[in-house]
Amino acid sequence: MDNKQNDEAVQDEMTKELFPENVIVLVDENDTAQPFELIGDFDFEDAAYAVVAPYAPDEEADETTVMVFRIADEDGEDVLYEIDDDEEWNRVVDYWNQSM
């Protein structure tokens, strides 16, 4: 196991210990790790998507900003990608809103 895989395994274990099961940790382009609550996931137009919100266990959930990511499988691991295409984004958000 190389250092990167070892670091990821340690991070996965720490995440499991620190956060509830429905919380995932995403790393941004600046290598900053942030916890997000997995609100839901769904399949739409031959793709899978995840809906997440910033994890804030002590705050009331009045109005929460949610984000939608496309899920891709890379070497057996789910990886979340931003939706860059405006048309795809609009279709996915419309679908999610209608299913709520």
SSE layout and pairings?
Elements: H1 3-18, E1 23-27, E2 33-44, E3 47-54, E4 67-74, E5 77-82, H2 86-99
Antiparallel strand pairs: 1-2, 2-3, 3-4, 4-5
Please sum up the structure shown.
It is built from 2 helices and 5 strands. It has helices at residues 3-18, 86-99, and strands at 23-27, 33-44, 47-54, 67-74, 77-82.
- SSE string, helices as H and strands as E: HEEEEEH
Structural class: alpha+beta
Number of helices: 2
The helix fraction, in percent, is 25-40%
Mean pLDDT: 80
Query: Rg from C-alpha positions?
Result: 15 Å
Structural shape = globular
Q: Count the beta strands.
A: 5
Low-confidence stretches: 1-11
Largest sheet: 5 strands, antiparallel
Whole-number total of structural domains = 1
Quaternary structure: single chain
Widest β-sheet, arrangement of strands: 1-2-3-4-5
Beta-strand residue percentage: 35-45%
In whole angstroms, the N-to-C terminal distance is 42 Å
